[in-house]
Amino acid sequence: MQRRQSSKNSKQPLQVPHSSQTDLSAWRKGGRTDPEKSLQNHQSRNSQVNESKQDSLEQAVSYFEKVQNRVSLKKSEVLQKHLATVESIALQKGLPPEVFDVLLNVALDGKLADAVNTRLLKSLIPASVIPETSVVSSVSWLCVSKCSGSIQLLFIRWLIAMFDFIDHKEQLHALYGFFFSFLQDEKMCPYVCHLLYLLTRKESVKPFRIRRLLDLQAKMGMQPHLQALLSLYKLFCPELVSITLPGKMKTYFKNSEGPWKAAINTIRQRNRENSPVSQLLFLGTAQHQSRKRKWNTQLIIPASSANVNILAEGKEKNHVDLYSTSESFPVEQLQTFSQLLQNIHHLEFPSQMGSVLTNPLLLHYMNCIKDESIYLRLYYWMGQTLQEECTWCVVDSYQYEEEFKDFLETVYKAECFLQEGFSSCEEFLYKSLPLWDGFCCRSQVLRLMTWIPLRGFSEMKSHLYDPLAQLFFTSSLYFKCSVLESLKELLQNWLNWLVIQLDSESDSQGYSLNTTLSGLVNMVAELVHFVGWISTIALRLESNATFLLYFILDFYETVCDIYLRYNLPMLIMPPPGVFYPALLSMDSVSLNQLCYIMYRYRTNLVAAKKNELIKKKILPFKFSSQTYQEYNQYLIAMVGCLWTSSAFQKDIHPQGIRLDDEVLKKTGVQEFKTGFNIVYHPAMMGYALLFLQQAWPDDNTFNFSLIKGRKWNWYLEYLYAQGLKGLKLFIESSINRVSQASQRKEGNVQV
């Protein structure tokens, strides 16, 4: 490998070999060369400051380029001055592309002390992109062992941290074998594995490399970085990797961004605040970006100016170029859905998988092509990002809460698009919920909870239900309602997933509900029981608040229809702690909801019984007699309350409202038997009052006993006209009424 000789040209230290790179005059103004007048409103004072900094940087780079012999940092004020200049400008603005060739060569050629080289590498922060040619040139210094092992290690870490700032990667891919040879160094092995993980393509997987990794594993044990690379190799070529690898780990690689992370964030924030025009194109083109945290930048597909120029030239010359059937198709050129279809088997995904989350075309690809290597990369990246950026798990991270909210929102939208949850997000929730205060990023966390995948996971109670219950019982009414809404959406997502699984299995092999799927149905039932438990306690804590009761009944509107709507053999009645507060509620909306829910329970149970009798079962399971018994107990209580005025006498539920007449007489209520029928019920009395005003406008006594016989029927029609559809469906389906003729003959109805 021959090293580029541009560093030897001292007369023109900042020549730009490629027209696509920015020149110094453009960098001086904080933008790319562009015919548009992008900085017309900059004040002259700012321009002078920029020119001064530019001149200082030119002098510093020229000095480093001319250094031939070892110079002592302590004894040379000139070296100290120029090194401080590079560090200062790198921190404030970032360095332009054309200085990386010189500074990388100086840091790796071994002429200066390690202290200087370390400071240089730590100051190599790009303002826009890093030329690939500069990186390849610097890699050549690793061949001649001019720099120490610590500098080599720091350089590899820098390469990982800046990987997606490099404008091209083809030449880096060609160096895959060279980087692979560094695995023999135990100190460098974890970071080299990380770099190889980013560079690996299918053609990179070779039998001799697999054997080498297996030898290292035998020598060092199952290290997470080796496992990550072997897992990726196995996904690309399963026939070559025959060993069984452990399950996914939360963290594969060590964090390589420490020395540069804060500096990059500072530069991007200052550039955004100081520039009155479009920001420098860090990792994308023509897209406005918010404050740049690590994950924020990685949500944009890496695209250099060179890539944009190539794309533009290709469009001008021949549109067919974009639909080329070459070995790989860069995703930054993917513009339309038709391009996706043309190149679906040739796409080269970005090494930084975070950019997939915001690209609908790539999400479509993930839906169509189940490429496990993509999911593995995304699993690693998302898991590590969530772990490092979580504002309630990491010290001093609350200042970035708004940014973390945006990131969680992006993840949630991607899950909605894919209609499935990410396993790394699930692990994040299980790990962070015990530490969560229920306030930070509340809506985002609860939304992510709705996409927790359904799997045969016996530890769901300890990982999700227990920490969630602790927050639920100790938080506000609004939080309780938000949790119930999220759990309802989680239930619906689980049910939809189960339906799809049943349909696909039945189409392929005449599927019958096996042990595994039966366990998943039990997981759904466990969720329903959990919601019933927390709802019962919450109603007691909140004094049967109507607002809370609405969300609880809304959850059971989904539960009551599981058998018919989702074709699943499950029907779970609400607990008494939910049913009776709804039945005796003072709000007509809650009572109407309960009536509708009981109507749907009846419809589902009748359908299930019919299927059992005619041997046309939806699934080979029968509802237990306890389900029918519990429904009948609730039905007797409802009819006794709303219709026959005998709830206190005939309610047979163990936790019902049955009371002896002697106890009722002691209450001092004269008409206690009719206290909860559809006329006197606290939730219905307002309707009865309005009905009396319309039926007897001249009567101011408001005698509710007048509502009987024919007036009773008129009153029912009046209630139905007020939108109480649930009440109507319940009465018409569950109450056998005497005929209209017999009612007219009798003249009244027993109430």
TrEMBL record:
Signal peptide limits: none
Polar residues composition bias: residue spans: 7-24, 40-51
A GO term from the CC aspect: nucleus
Keywords: Centromere, Chromosome, Nucleus
InterPro entries for this protein: CENP-I
Domain of life: Eukaryota
Cellular compartments annotated: Chromosome, Centromere; Nucleus
GO biological process, one term: CENP-A containing chromatin assembly
Protein's UniProt name: CENPI protein
Species per Swiss-Prot/TrEMBL record: Casuarius casuarius (Southern cassowary)
Gene: Cenpi
